[in-house]
Amino acid sequence: MPPPQARLPWELEEEILTRLPPKVLVRFRTVCKQWNSLFNDRSFIYNHLSLPRPQFILLTKHTIYSIDITDPTMKLLERHTSRLGLCLHNANITTCDELLFFNYPRPWEKKTSLWNPWLRQVKWINLVVDKHFDVFGLGYDNSRPEKVYKMLGYMRYQINVYPDRVVIYECAFQTLRFIDTPDEDMPMSETAKSSHVSLNGNLYWIACNRQTREYFIQSFDFSSEIFKPVCLLPFQESPSCDEHVLAVFKGDRFSLLMQCYLTRKIDIWVTKRKIDDTEEVVWMKLMTLTATNLPKLFNKLYGVSYFIYDKTLVMCCGDDESGKPCIYIVKGDTCDKIHIGADLNSLASRITWFSHCAYVPNWTSVPLEF
User: Fold this and answer.
1) What would the pLDDT profile of 191-235 be if each residue is shown by its tens digit?
2) Whose CA is closest to 121, among 368, 291, 357, 341?
3) Cys-Cys with 59: which of 74, 148, 165, 355 at CB 3.0–4.6 Å?
4) Who's near 211: CB < 8 A, 6+ residues apart?
5) pTM recorded for the entire structure
């Protein structure tokens, strides 16, 4: 008679499951009730998020892909998009903490969406407005135990003219509220709109003081509903043609990429401590990259997204010559360029428009009700 099948201790079993990628865990939900309950447990979700496996999300006109840079083949994996239901052309994709946020700029569509591609969950946010509402970004009040989502935007009384008023859109009640804001606080540039980052429900972006010409990080706090400066950038001598890109680092800090326009040298700075209202922001230089074949990041048509992984800079942006999407993996004085989609019947050659962002796959559920 064969011996009874040995079973791992539950603590070890849970540790192994924590280290598996989301696409594997989705299939494991049906293995047993205990595993399914574990995957819904908040502590398991947080533990899983503490082991980041960054990827890029790439939008083309009709398809959404994920790109896992830890996969040696660097394959494009098509994500579940049938429930999105709209043409993706010109949509702007960013993150709102652990979820993806789609901002559709065309005024006649009047909707946005939150999405978790690994859970195949999509939630539409219908914009019940009469006039053109230009959405800047999504956040939530982090002073409350539950996430009450709000959108920051502008109410334009004539399209393509100076924004008239700053507006908060309450997703739960589908109502607009105007807020009084000095002109100098308003994030006017399209660059800020497409390159802001979300952290703990608030929005952050790089701005420049019009009087002093100092570069700093501006924020919008959805709890107090005010714009406020966070800190100066760690360098102020940088010419306007140099490229500056802000990102979230290790889930609770900032990283800052700065490329010199003339030499293409890249400096990466990170904040020493987590970002909150109680600590002064202190910057430290993480690394300097001097590879001779670094791409020129200034004024990229579709922007630059990046993350730091295992002391390596990983960037997504258009090729310098063709403009087609590429992944750049930079470590020390070496830079490897990988053309996206080379394995899918020359897909890259057919991409005429794209949007992209860095994203950490996770188990955070899209709220079914706002």
Assistant:
1) 566 678 999 999 999 988 878 888 899 999 999 999 989 999 988
2) 368
3) 355
4) none
5) 0.82
